[in-house]
Amino acid sequence: MAEVRRFVDADELGRTLAGEIVAARPALLGCPGGRSLQTTYRHLLELQETTIVMMDEYVPVPPAGAHYSCRGFAARELPHAKEIWLPDPDDPEAYDERIADAGGIDLFLLASGASDGHVAMLGPGAPRDGRTTVVELAETTRRDNLRTFPEFESIDDVPEHGVTVGLRTILDAKALRLVIHGADKQHAIERVLSLDAFDPTWPVSIVHEHDDAEILIA
Asked: CB burial class (10 A; 0-12, 13-18, 19+) of residue 16?
């Protein structure tokens, strides 16, 4: 079961986690898009030796300037990184190979979907041993994305597919840190803390299956 750490607010959490990441100097840092890690990213100013391994991207792949582009998000939020990688929907299997060839992900940062516990674009029922692939997004995940990206006018504007790392890709990282904070994530916090092992109906609970995993809450 993952260790739990609590913080006064999201900024304290972000400053602390960013300091730990900078001190660890990971060669490969796995990162999600979205809101949860933004307070961490804004303090990550020393990443010149770190390659960012983004978890996912929408399909069809949007231009980097699109408000929901994961590539664009990474470029804006993590501009100090050595390099930024994203999975290719035309050859998703190559992503895991590229990661392995580079020595594996040293630290994977995770976030949780508010309503369904999705991690990356993996909704309820995602296979524990799955690797990078193209998936159809669950409706609950798309509704969470609608809140994450308020520029979407309705759920009809949210893409239905994405290319995403798998739960096995996440488990293969040397360490995991799950960040959850905010009033809209209280249900997600309660749910993941109610579990002590992986529950496929709440995919981010995969954090409990890793030997070096922490849940950071504010």
From this structure: middle
194 by Cβ neighbours in 10 Å (0-12 / 13-18 / 19+) ranks as: exposed
Q: Apex CA 96: angle with CA 139 and CA 148, to 5°? A: 30
What mean pLDDT is reported for the chain? Answer: 97
Residue 147's pLDDT is 87
C-alpha span between 28 and 51 (Å, rounded) = 5
The Cα–Cα gap between 87 and 71 comes to 10
Average pLDDT over residues 65-87: 97
CA distance 210 to 169: 12
Pairing between β-strand 56-59 and β-strand 161-164 as defined by DSSP bridges = antiparallel
Non-local (6+) Cβ contacts of 7 within 8 A are 13, 16, 181, 216, 217, 218
User: What domains does the chain contain, in order, with CATH numbers?
Assistant: 3-217 (3.40.50.1360)
162 and 136 Cβ atoms separated by less than 8 Å: no
Longest distance between any two alpha carbons in the chain, whole Å: 43
